[in-house]
Here is the input.
Amino acid sequence: MQKTLILAAHPNLAASVVNRRWLAELDKHSGYTVHQLYPAYPDGKIDTAAEQCLVEAHDRLVLQFPVYWFSCPPLLKQWFDDVLTYGWAYGSQGKALQDKTVALAVSLGAPAADYRAEGKIGCPLTEVLRPFELTMRYCNADYRPPFTFHTIDSNAAYDDAARALIDQSAADYLEWLKHLS
Here is the structure.
């Protein structure tokens, strides 16, 4: 069985609804290593060697985070800068991610319809997430299409219908992970 590392990057998981629910669902199942960046590095100082060893110990890498300001939380960006080093992740000797399955699992507060040329965002989500795809392809990883969940705004009130959607997204996330290869 392939080992999957879920690198979760949410700066305020206690206030999260979707990402917290996804992680709670993952806790019920074996085969997934969940590594939360913000609790691991409250001072923002990433242990590059430890992170590289963690990635190397897994067959698949999933980066889970909320999309805001059309990017990732700052500590995940720092993780990219600190961990994906020349000679390890890229360059003539950089083979750590070569052919490793990598994908994103992202939550978004805007409806999916907003992510199109004529929508509020003005471009498809694939364009918003392109820097992640390019980074992983540059590292010769096997980048896969993301798992996405739209429309639960962190500032919104939650009713039974919203909770049912979130619960379904957790089940869908788990199913997506099972077929990620």
